[in-house]
Amino acid sequence: MDWFERESKVLIQFYRRQPVVFVKGEGCWLFDVNGKKYLDLVAGIATVSIGHCHPHFVSKVEEQLRKLVHVSNLYYTTPQIELAEKLQKITGLDKFFFCNSGAEAVEASLKIARKVTGRKKFVAFTGSFHGRTMGALSVTWKEKFRKPFEPLIQPVEFARFNDVHDLEKKVDDDTACVIVEPIQGEAGVHPASKEFIKAVFEERDEHGFIVIFDEVQTGFGRTGKWFAKEHFKVQPDVMTMAKAMGSGFPIGGVGVREEIAEKLEPTEHASTFGGNPLACTASLATIEIMEKEKLVENSEKMGEYFRKRLEEIGLKTRGLGLMIGVEVKNAFDLVSKALERGLVVNATSEDTLRLVPPLIINRDEIDFAVEILAHLTKTTG
Ligand SMILES: Cc1ncc(COP(=O)(O)O)c(C=O)c1O
Q1: What is the reported pLDDT for 380?
Q2: CB under 6 Å to ligand 1: residues?
Q3: Looking at the 3D structure of the chain, how many domains does it have?
Q4: Quick one: 376 and 230 in the same domain?
């Protein structure tokens, strides 16, 4: 019995997997069970930012693993405090809460919005994706994801993404928060416009709701800045983060302004594993490596180079930094064909490839990928 058959006998079939079994990773490269090598342009979906098994990351996590893994938030632990101090510096936000995933970060942020404003209504956008838990799903656009689980949390209003007029119609004095992805990831890499984000903050000032930036996918250097909010020169009231925060080690978080933190009290929210010493150490090591190896700058530079090369072979692109959407005709077919040629890419829909490689990627690796994509888009459309 092979791995595919074994998987089908023991795992709930929630995933449509590519036919490959990965067993090892090194830098931007993955190795399958047969020893075949692949260039990884998915990075665990915008997650493994420092590359697979970075030696400094491995040694820091290993050292912490031998010291202390978990004790509960009933007690103080040093990596959690150090990580929050570091995040203060790189986000400009004041106080933090740690959890284990993006959806959990969104859940916490929605609860915070209700508690702090005393209001009920959430406003989200067409195309949004915020996660699969009941709260996060309630502000997620795709009907297919939401429908089987209704009734979800209400009231939620969806305004058209990048449509200032529709935004103005949907927000009011009952709105607890507006939750927005600065660049929509799952929808296929669609950046918010500057005017749209400006309008979100103007409406906030008029109506007194909270602005939540969901930076789960865009955070930690992905877009060529530490956080995508910097492209818009704004500071959200609440920001969610996860994915690249631990470069593959599960950790998520919420950052808030001081005025919001002041209104939150003990026992109103919690997580058993959230902010445990091992996860916080993984995140601290990730940030340390990003700073030392200037990966935010590399994301900007290599993102530009990658987009330029793709345009040269006749492909249209969207996005910022190393969060790249590529317009194609038959994306799912391309994903399978690329895999056969040793290139791991992801499609968000039949017309969009999403390229979100490790932020350590270099020109030679990009050239390798472009060569394969050039060949495939010529032969398969
Ligand atoms: C913007 C955004 N928010 C939230 C999530 C949910 O994160 P997780 O899968 O870690 O729960 C995702 C995942 O793709 C995301 O892209």
Answers
A1: 60
A2: 101-103, 106, 129-131, 181, 185-186, 214, 216-217, 242
A3: 2
A4: no
> Which CATH number fits the domain that encloses residue 350?
3.90.1150.10
Q: Which domain holds residue 135?
A: 55-292
Buried b or exposed e, range 56-89, using 16+ CB within 10 angstroms: ebeebbeebeeeeeeeebeeebebbeebbebbee
Token digits for 191? 């950046």
For residue 217, how far is its CA from the centre of ligand 1 (angstroms)?
7
Is there a single domain that holds both residue 250 and residue 302?
Answer: no
Q: Length of the chain, please? A: 381
Low-confidence ranges of the chain (pLDDT < 70): 380-381
Distance CA 237, CA 201 (A): 10
Q: Give per-residue pLDDT as tens, 78-87.
A: 999 999 999 9
Residue whose Cα lies nearest atom 3 of ligand 1: it is 130
Structure tokens at 203: 């409406």
257 Cα distance to chain centroid = 21
Distance of alpha carbon 246 from alpha carbon 225, whole angstroms: 17
The CA-based angle 137-197-168, given to 5 degrees, is 80
For ligand 1, pick from 217, 271, 323 the residue to mutate: most ligand atoms within 8 Å of CB.
217
Token pair for 321: 């930094």
The contacts found for 364-371 with CB under 8 angstroms, 24 or more apart, are: 365/28, 365/39, 366/302, 366/305, 366/306, 366/309, 367/309, 368/39, 368/343, 369/39, 369/41, 369/306, 369/343, 369/345, 370/306, 370/309, 370/310, 370/312, 370/313
- CATH code of 275's domain: 3.40.640.10
Burial of 268: CB neighbours in 10 Å, binned 0-12, 13-18, 19+: exposed
Residue 91 Ramachandran class (φ > 0 left, ψ -120 to 50 alpha, else beta): alpha
Question: What does the block give as tokens for 296?
Answer: 């935010």
The string of pLDDT tens digits covering residues 341-351 is 999 999 999 99
Residue at 243: amino acid letter: K
The predicted model scores a pTM of 0.98
Please provide the DSSP assignment of 173-200 as one string. Answer: TTEEEEEE-SEETTTTSEEPPHHHHHHH
167 with 44, same domain?
no
Give the domain-ending residue among 259, 275, 292: 292
